[in-house]
Amino acid sequence: MKVLVIGCGGVAGVAIRKCCQASDVFTELCIASRTKEKCDALAAELAPNTDTKITTAQVDAGNAEELSALICSVGPDLVMNIALPYQDLTIMDACLACGVNYMDTANYEPEDTEDPAWRAAYEKRCREKGFSAYFDYSWQWAYREKFEKAGLTALLGCGFDPGVSQAYCAWARKHEFDTIDTIDILDCNGGDHGYPFATNFNPEINLREVSAPGSYWEDGRWVEVPAMSIKRVYDFDQVGRRDMYLLHHEEIESLAVNIPEVKRIRFFMTFGQSYLDHMRCLGDVGMLSTAPVEYEGREIVPIQFLKVLLPDPATLGPRTHGKTNIGCIFTGKKDGQDKAYYIYNVSDHQACYREVGSQAVSYTTGVPAMCGAMMLLTGKWAAPGVHTVEEFDPDPFMDALERYGLPRTENRSPVLVE
Ligand code: NDP
């Protein structure tokens, strides 16, 4: 099967290396990105040790015509969009134009949040739904009918969270519960890279996400709270006690639709005090702003300028020590009895670095992207339309995660988050 990967950053690097470990499925890969040199360097490194045939291309995924021309000329079975969420819609359009299946790791958000047309739709959504993060599924769910009619599948958000977090929900629902009452998704990065401040994946996307107001789903509606205003302390297996904060996160939106009986869904992520202090200062002085400002006669976007100053997440691998622990805690009922269940993965930053040259945050995102692609290519997940991970049978995906480096641990008497 032939796959076109768009993007060649931290996450794509891992996914591509993993695809090359499964050459029986991924027989041909074309790596295309804005900076072709990165694609060429990775292809040259991988080619001697894989049976996967690798080619490279230069593309601006924001340019619909350029993109369609590339996809149609490569003629892949699947496009893996591992660039940035800004390009989700142009890549989906190009996939439809060329009759190719699509997947990504993060849902759409616009690069320019001042764009009047986008802003009008955004403000309407804020009023109607009650959460104000820049990203939501509505833009990509609007493509459902087009993909269904074309007989094509679009798989959205197949990283770890979103992605594996939803597979854990589908797994819990299939194997552990008759009904689920609550879901808490806990994302702990216990790693230390030694820098005063750096983000573990694309800084612009990361800082937008964590500086947005927090929100959770309860009793059929969104509850929004100021950013970082709900804090809990949790003792994570193999990491230890960490402060974690409630965030808005994209999979809450799809889980609320696809597991409608759930009364409450929350998402927590760990942050150290130093990270929060840096982020608050940067926010206070305007460095997190996405609105262009004029500087010496040209326009710059503060958060994009900040990205240039911060360490490239793809370079954190050799410096990062410690572990990640990401998973879901469920409460609900099985055979009439109350039940709790915790399922999670622990990944070691240095072990990931030794295997694929990346830290665990890129690893835990890139491996599920490759496993999701494998599900689509082998027909294990086949349903025309636009879907999120929890809509598919979790079993073959969970087997693939286990096999390709993200084993699960289960605990049937977990400490719950208050
Ligand atoms: P990086 O910034 O490291 O890489 C992004 C890549 O996309 C770069 O190769 C970049 O090219 C390329 N790119 C950007 N814009 C364009 C464009 N217009 N046309 C073509 N290529 C482009 O990001 P990450 O690897 O850290 O993140 C990748 C994705 O994974 C993001 O969408 C992120 O939100 C998502 N993610 C998802 C997670 C999950 O658990 N679901 C967790 C972590 C990340 P260039 O080198 O020229 O800049």
Give the arrangement of secondary structure elements.
Elements (H helix, E strand, L loop, with lengths): L1 E5 L3 H10 L8 E6 L2 H11 L6 E6 L5 H11 L3 E4 L6 H11 L2 E4 L11 H14 L8 H4 L2 H7 L2 E4 L7 H13 L2 E11 L13 H9 L2 E5 L2 E5 L5 E6 L3 E7 L3 H9 L5 E7 L2 H12 L8 E3 L2 E3 L1 H8 L13 E12 L2 E12 H8 L3 H18 L7 E4 L5 H10 L5 E3 L7
Helix pairs in contact: 1-14, 3-4, 8-15, 14-15
This protein binds NADPH dihydro-nicotinamide-adenine-dinucleotide phosphate (NDP).
Biggest β-sheet, characterized? 9 strands, mixed
Quote the average pLDDT: 95
Shape: globular
Radius of gyration: 20 Å
Binned strand content? 25-35%
Number of strands: 18
Low-confidence stretches: none
Individual helix count: 15
Bound molecules: NADPH dihydro-nicotinamide-adenine-dinucleotide phosphate
Structural class: alpha/beta
| Approximate helicity band | 25-40%
Distance between the termini: 47 Å
